[in-house]
Protein backbone atom coordinates (compact mmCIF):
# COMPACT_ATOMS: atom_id res chain seq x y z
CA UNK A 1 0.00 0.00 0.00
CA UNK A 2 1.30 3.45 -0.93
CA UNK A 3 2.42 5.73 1.85
CA UNK A 4 0.91 9.15 2.26
CA UNK A 5 3.08 12.26 2.11
CA UNK A 6 2.74 12.56 5.88
CA UNK A 7 4.04 9.01 6.36
CA UNK A 8 7.02 9.68 4.10
CA UNK A 9 7.64 12.92 6.01
CA UNK A 10 7.57 10.97 9.29
CA UNK A 11 10.09 8.50 7.83
CA UNK A 12 12.35 11.46 6.96
CA UNK A 13 12.12 12.74 10.55
CA UNK A 14 13.03 9.28 11.86
CA UNK A 15 15.99 9.06 9.47
CA UNK A 16 17.20 12.48 10.57
CA UNK A 17 17.02 11.33 14.19
CA UNK A 18 19.05 8.21 13.42
CA UNK A 19 21.88 10.03 11.67
CA UNK A 20 21.96 13.58 13.14
CA UNK A 21 24.01 12.80 16.26
CA UNK A 22 24.65 16.40 17.31
CA UNK A 23 20.99 17.33 16.63
CA UNK A 24 21.87 20.43 14.63
CA UNK A 25 19.48 19.61 11.79
CA UNK A 26 22.28 18.52 9.43
CA UNK A 27 23.73 15.12 8.68
CA UNK A 28 27.42 15.18 7.79
CA UNK A 29 29.47 12.52 6.04
CA UNK A 30 31.04 11.71 9.43
CA UNK A 31 27.60 11.18 10.99
CA UNK A 32 26.56 8.89 8.14
CA UNK A 33 29.84 6.99 8.43
CA UNK A 34 29.57 6.63 12.22
CA UNK A 35 25.98 5.32 12.03
CA UNK A 36 26.72 2.85 9.26
CA UNK A 37 29.90 1.45 10.82
CA UNK A 38 28.29 1.28 14.28
CA UNK A 39 25.59 -0.91 12.73
CA UNK A 40 28.06 -3.27 11.08
CA UNK A 41 28.16 -1.85 7.56
CA UNK A 42 31.49 -1.42 5.84
CA UNK A 43 31.36 1.65 3.68
CA UNK A 44 34.00 3.97 2.32
CA UNK A 45 33.90 7.63 3.44
CA UNK A 46 34.64 8.76 -0.12
CA UNK A 47 31.61 6.82 -1.30
CA UNK A 48 29.47 8.52 1.36
CA UNK A 49 30.87 11.90 0.33
CA UNK A 50 29.70 11.28 -3.24
CA UNK A 51 26.24 10.29 -2.01
CA UNK A 52 25.96 13.44 0.11
CA UNK A 53 27.28 15.57 -2.75
CA UNK A 54 24.62 14.19 -5.11
CA UNK A 55 21.79 14.96 -2.68
CA UNK A 56 23.11 18.17 -1.14
CA UNK A 57 20.99 20.78 -2.93
CA UNK A 58 22.29 23.84 -1.07
CA UNK A 59 25.97 22.88 -1.30
CA UNK A 60 26.73 23.05 2.43
CA UNK A 61 28.27 19.58 2.51
CA UNK A 62 25.53 18.09 4.69
CA UNK A 63 21.97 16.79 4.40
CA UNK A 64 19.20 18.91 5.92
CA UNK A 65 15.60 17.85 6.50
CA UNK A 66 14.39 19.11 3.13
CA UNK A 67 17.10 17.12 1.35
CA UNK A 68 16.34 14.03 3.48
CA UNK A 69 12.67 14.38 2.58
CA UNK A 70 13.64 14.49 -1.10
CA UNK A 71 15.63 11.25 -0.63
CA UNK A 72 12.69 9.57 1.12
CA UNK A 73 10.22 10.66 -1.57
CA UNK A 74 12.54 9.29 -4.29
CA UNK A 75 12.96 6.01 -2.40
CA UNK A 76 9.20 5.70 -1.93
CA UNK A 77 8.58 6.35 -5.62
CA UNK A 78 11.19 3.76 -6.63
CA UNK A 79 9.70 1.21 -4.23
CA UNK A 80 6.21 1.82 -5.62
CA UNK A 81 7.47 1.53 -9.20
CA UNK A 82 9.28 -1.72 -8.36
CA UNK A 83 6.14 -3.15 -6.76
CA UNK A 84 4.08 -2.27 -9.83
CA UNK A 85 6.70 -3.75 -12.12
CA UNK A 86 6.72 -6.95 -10.06
CA UNK A 87 2.93 -7.22 -10.45
CA UNK A 88 3.26 -6.95 -14.24
CA UNK A 89 6.06 -9.54 -14.20
CA UNK A 90 3.94 -11.94 -12.14
CA UNK A 91 1.02 -11.59 -14.56
CA UNK A 92 3.31 -12.55 -17.45
CA UNK A 93 4.90 -15.41 -15.48
CA UNK A 94 1.97 -17.77 -15.98
CA UNK A 95 3.57 -20.84 -14.40
CA UNK A 96 4.85 -18.89 -11.38
CA UNK A 97 8.46 -20.05 -11.67
CA UNK A 98 9.85 -16.52 -11.20
CA UNK A 99 10.97 -16.22 -14.81
CA UNK A 100 9.30 -15.50 -18.13
CA UNK A 101 9.78 -17.99 -20.95
CA UNK A 102 9.78 -17.11 -24.62
CA UNK A 103 6.29 -18.58 -24.99
CA UNK A 104 4.97 -16.63 -21.97
CA UNK A 105 6.37 -13.42 -23.41
CA UNK A 106 4.91 -14.17 -26.84
CA UNK A 107 1.46 -14.81 -25.31
CA UNK A 108 1.69 -11.62 -23.21
CA UNK A 109 2.61 -9.51 -26.26
CA UNK A 110 -0.38 -10.90 -28.12
CA UNK A 111 -2.83 -10.65 -25.23
CA UNK A 112 -1.83 -7.30 -23.69
CA UNK A 113 -0.25 -5.48 -26.62
CA UNK A 114 -2.30 -6.99 -29.45
CA UNK A 115 1.00 -7.76 -31.18
CA UNK A 116 1.56 -11.05 -32.97
CA UNK A 117 5.27 -11.79 -33.03
CA UNK A 118 7.00 -14.35 -35.27
CA UNK A 119 9.40 -16.92 -33.85
CA UNK A 120 12.33 -15.07 -35.47
CA UNK A 121 11.23 -11.81 -33.85
CA UNK A 122 10.91 -13.61 -30.50
CA UNK A 123 14.45 -14.95 -30.87
CA UNK A 124 15.73 -11.40 -31.48
CA UNK A 125 13.78 -10.04 -28.50
CA UNK A 126 15.13 -12.78 -26.23
CA UNK A 127 18.70 -12.07 -27.41
CA UNK A 128 18.23 -8.43 -26.40
CA UNK A 129 16.51 -9.02 -23.06
CA UNK A 130 17.95 -12.32 -21.78
CA UNK A 131 21.29 -10.95 -20.54
CA UNK A 132 22.50 -14.20 -18.96
CA UNK A 133 21.41 -16.28 -21.98
CA UNK A 134 19.59 -18.91 -19.92
CA UNK A 135 16.52 -18.85 -22.20
CA UNK A 136 14.34 -17.02 -19.67
CA UNK A 137 13.73 -13.46 -18.53
CA UNK A 138 14.35 -12.95 -14.82
CA UNK A 139 12.75 -10.09 -12.91
CA UNK A 140 16.05 -8.18 -12.98
CA UNK A 141 16.31 -8.60 -16.75
CA UNK A 142 12.67 -7.56 -17.12
CA UNK A 143 13.16 -4.48 -14.95
CA UNK A 144 16.34 -3.49 -16.82
CA UNK A 145 14.52 -3.84 -20.13
CA UNK A 146 11.54 -1.77 -18.99
CA UNK A 147 13.83 1.00 -17.70
CA UNK A 148 15.48 1.22 -21.13
CA UNK A 149 12.15 2.39 -22.54
CA UNK A 150 11.52 5.12 -19.95
What is this structure's SSE topology?
Blueprint: H1 5-19, H2 29-38, H3 45-55, H4 65-92, E1 100-101, H5 102-113, H6 119-129, E2 136-137, H7 139-148
Helix pairs in contact: 1-4, 2-3
General description of the model:
This protein is an all-alpha fold and 150 residues long. The protein has seven helices and two strands. It has helices spanning 5-19, 29-38, 45-55, 65-92, 102-113, 119-129, 139-148, and strands spanning 100-101, 136-137.
Instruction: Give the overall form.
Output: elongated
Strand order of the largest sheet: 1-2
Number of strands: 2
For the record, give the distance between the C-alpha atoms at the N and C termini, rounded to a whole number.
Answer: 24 Å
User: What is the number of helices?
Assistant: 7
Question: Which percent range fits the helix content?
Answer: 55-70%
